[in-house]
Design a protein that fits this description.
The protein is mainly α and 127 residues long. It has one domain. The protein has seven helices and no strands. The protein has helices at residues 14-25, 30-51, 62-67, 69-75, 77-95, 102-107, 111-121. The radius of gyration is 14 Å and the shape is globular. This is DUF4145 domain-containing protein.
Length: 127
């Protein structure tokens, strides 16, 4: 089966697998889609901290990493805002009983921001 995430190397392991899962669940299981999209955001943000050799923020949770000035400088405000939006909707999916629509799930897909982010970093996907 082909995926929009075929460009992510197989050696990215869980990140690639979770991105494919998010894509697969978009319409059939929106809550799971959003959960996996948030996992991808967290994994990619941590990878960016490593690649850019950014100092750990005051807290190491996802919100603090996304809000870190070094991270925002590395990825730009548009990507940071998208990552934060995915984080927030992922938190709703996990911690609240509100429904997650297919439209919301598809908007939280990591595809859009990943494809814009990787070239901007100027690094190889292969680590």
């Amino acid at each position: 089966m082909t995926s929009n995430f075929d460009f992510v190397p197989a050696d990215w392991g869980e990140t690639r697998a979770d991105a494919v899962r998010a894509e697969t669940y978009g319409r059939s299981d929106p809550r799971s889609c959003v959960f996996y999209a948030r996992r991808v955001v967290e994994q990619v943000v941590i990878r960016i901290f490593d690649l850019e050799r950014l100092a750990a923020p005051y807290k190491t949770d996802l919100a603090a990493r996304i809000g870190d000035s070094g991270f925002r400088a590395a990825v730009g405000s548009e990507i940071a805002a998208k990552a934060d939006a995915v984080r927030k909707v992922g938190n709703v999916a996990v911690h609240e009983s509100r429904g997650i629509t297919a439209q919301t799930a598809l908007r939280s897909s990591p595809l859009g921001w990943c494809t814009r982010l990787i070239p901007r970093l100027g690094v190889s996907l292969r680590l």
